[in-house]
Amino acid sequence: MANRLFLxxxxxxxxxxxxxxxxxxxxxxxxxxxxxxxxxxxxxxxxVGGPALVISSxxxxxxxxxxxxxLRVDEVTxxxxxxxxxxxxxxxxxxIRETVPGWTVWTHPIPGGESTDDVTAxxxxxxxxxxxxVESGDVIxxxxxxxxxxxxxxxxxxxxxxxVHFGLDAxxxxxxxxxxxxxxxEHLNLLPALEA
Length: 196
Hints:
With 196 residues, the chain is of the alpha/beta class. The protein has helices at 14-18, 31-47, 60-68, 93-97, 116-133, 145-155; strands at residues 5-9, 52-56, 75-76, 138-143, 173-179, 182-190.
């Protein structure tokens, strides 16, 4: 089996439950999120063939997810941080739409935050490195919802905005590989095992 890239989204937080955009804010997992992370580790153990390079976002929700999943983090980098929501940090989409009708992170500007071009460049930098690392073994990236969806899009050569088409729930796992050199989504939004 060829080496693969695994994306693990952090477990549930209070803000992910109520739909508040959580980029830079460093909030902990809920007890349910901690259990999701443990179970995601059980799921990963069935998928990962051997030792893997593990790289995490610096946010505590990602680092704690990695720890509870039984992963040893080799590197922490801001490059895996969530999309920077700027002025919309901590605000829900319905609240934003009160002043910007039809707003989505995928289609509209984010005042004081990252543009689509910004997240595309960051994702491409991450994936450039990952493509080199995956030649030697599996790679696991522990991060966030929107940015992981951008990584999925860019892996297959689609624009970052195509991330709107890919779901990734709390502690969900995406598995990216290739078929004879053509980038492929092998699995998307695998949910944590029922029992850890």
